């Protein structure tokens, strides 16, 4: 089936932004099809823009901790009739209006959602409503990989993938302590990623989650793990080296040490140094660039990190922007989540130590704009966006749901594109924040094509998704049409149309049947000797065979679900 | 195979070798399971379901596929959904939803814990008969077990046999949380007393005081007391307090409904006990329990009520207690028992045995049809999907 979109401005960060036809044949963009060829569907869309489907490279949408968050706070669920599965075609927004003005301001982006951690159906639906077509769960615990994939399979309208959580698995820590050859670690990492069907490797507070199990309450980059005597620096070096050697498209995805602590910028810089010049992605960087200056001993060090990113093409970050309102924070970083237990609102939390591999901490949290630290976090996130010059090195995330639910993206985009609007929100913050923050001096306003790069092309390149993120010949026809508007928040909140794999799946608030979904994986070479070795170790250590938890590729396939392999690093144009 | 009673993977070929009366009983039932489903023709069912005023979906749902289908079915027919054994799980769930949880998984507990506090009575040993073997890490490091509650020597022997340094402290089950709290106060007070000679203290006391990682184990099934969720909450509070200085976590044992609850949570946002209206789920852990649903069935409304029973486990124990069976007399029952015996594990679970496997913490996909004795027979999820179309 040939589909032609005419009259709209095409923006993809690769070709010049201009009015041109976009044609797709089946699921592939085919701009070489001549004008004279009869198309099956024609759309004349003057006054619109056409972009590729959005890609969220860091959003918690599957796996144990997301479900634990749902379990913990059923009272935060506010189901309205239009959230029901059988009401998929009702796009009404009949929100209650009985909150105070501030609450209304804070919860504006929450209102489309029934909860900070909605169910899979709602997650898929709301992402599609904003023009996103692929999302990545950044923390797949090996023992929980089957759960994560099964949950993401139930998230409609999104292609999905996961990053495997390593760096706190006791076997790896033992091997690093014992000084095994790097090749053995490479083989282990390759085997683990393959066995759990992930597409990248993530490390959370390297060694810190495990150290907390031994009652160690603090571990910075050069501190020693109380049991193993190794440092996070060693772990980061070993893992980044493995990721590089195995040729993963996505660099090591790092949640740094000292999450949320004043002065943690030094640990973040040390983390960058630890990988010795290899490629590195720092995730939810906003939570990791704090100084110790200012009236409350808590200040922004965003300029330090941004300067480093600007001077090093091997570095990329996603921001993890904070927005004001109720959310639930969930992280593998048990050590620091536990330290924050007193801040939980409502006052309850769940902490788990899991399978000699990792852990998880879940606590509900309310960011308040009249609170000094919360206001400061908001400014630091925005600062990072504005200070990093290349939009292909900084990605738009709220670390959903940790900083805010993903539905706040359109609001965030407006903040980045509109200085006056930004300053209006800024003027409501705590007076000490207004005093301390350099935000008013940052007058940059993001251009539309920069936003598109940051939300499409950049994540696609960072993940090795060669056929996504742009409108080039041969790309997958995940195409989004927005009606032009002066108000960018409104524009990005409601696309006119969304195509997935060439199929129209959303138009003017109406959802249509989903196209085939993909699970995106990496496929590193696996050493057969490692297979035998791990089988033996697993049985002794965990009490069951590796085959009990390994996910077969066939399990990921079904009538409407396929498996896609990322391109190795260096093979992309 | 995975024992549906205690959730542990069992590597024994002959279950009768294991001291577990319930297993032996289930093995007997395993042989007598009905070979075919009694489901009437689909065309007869749809009018019944459409005209029903109240529908309950319940039973023992063990696989991801059937859980998905059951939730979709409940949503389509505005039904209430709750597993038949959720009563035990919800003792823990209600406590967690009020005040949170510090917990540990099985393999982690086995590797990390130096003091286990097992709370309950001798029934615990029949609920989780292989736990001593599963938790024994076989390392030289001594692991201590404190059996706190109403345990006899027979239970203690099981733990001793598995290599644990075992202590039994009799205690009224209902007063365990306060006993532990007082114990903590006592330990704190003694720790602050410079004149106290620690070496002269009870060795158990010393081990508890010096434990790096304490795991508290209980089975919700054994909590036969009113408002057991409050008991669990107090125990969780003690665990949370202990974490201020040492590491401590809960290892609660529930039922094999784990897979259903996970799937239901990600589909609806709630762990079960959900009632649908126009496709919108509402959660009420009390009102939407299957027991409450049955008790609230009005006498005159039996012909407008339908119960859909799904059983995916190999032990076809009856769902309904006698008084419940009487309460629903006249109500339409649709039974979706497996048409052929299916193990609620993936192929790997059949081909690769092990010492332990937490079926209540790990998702179970349905076994491939090719491994079933009747590969072409319809499963419960097939039926539910067909009816939901």
Properties at a glance:
heterodimer, A: 573 residues, alpha/beta, TIM Barrel, 10-stranded parallel sheet, 7-stranded mixed sheet, 19 helices, 32% helix, globular, B: 389 residues, Rossmann fold, Dimethylsulfoxide Reductase, domain 2, 2 domains, 6-stranded mixed sheet, 5-stranded parallel sheet, 12 strands, 17% strand
Task: Describe the secondary-structure layout.
The complex is a heterodimer of chains A (573) and B (389).
Chain A (H helix, E strand, L loop, with lengths): L1 E5 L2 E2 L7 E2 L2 E4 L2 E2 L11 E4 L3 E5 L1 E3 L7 H9 L28 H6 L13 H11 L1 E9 L4 H9 L5 E8 L3 H9 L3 H14 L4 E5 L3 H6 L18 H15 L5 E4 L9 H10 L5 E3 L7 E2 L7 E2 L1 H9 L4 E4 L6 E7 L2 H6 L10 E5 L3 E10 L4 H16 L6 E2 L13 H9 L1 H8 L4 H6 L11 H16 L15 E5 L4 H6 L3 E4 L2 E5 L2 E2 L5 E5 L6 H14 L4 H4 L11 E5 L8
Parallel strand pairs in A: 1-6, 2-7, 8-9, 9-10, 10-11, 10-25, 11-12, 12-13, 13-16, 16-20, 25-26
Antiparallel strand pairs in A: 1-4, 2-3, 4-5, 7-21, 14-15, 17-19, 18-19, 21-22, 22-23, 23-24
Chain B lengths: L20 H12 L9 H10 L2 E7 L3 H13 L3 E2 L4 H14 L1 E4 L1 H7 L2 E7 L1 H5 L3 H5 L8 E7 L2 H9 L3 E6 L5 H17 L10 H8 L2 E7 L8 H15 L4 E7 L4 H11 L5 E4 L2 E4 L6 H6 L9 E7 L10 H6 L4 E5 L10 H5 L28 H9 L1
Parallel strand pairs in B: 1-2, 1-11, 4-5, 4-7, 5-6, 7-8, 11-12
Antiparallel strand pairs in B: 2-9, 9-10
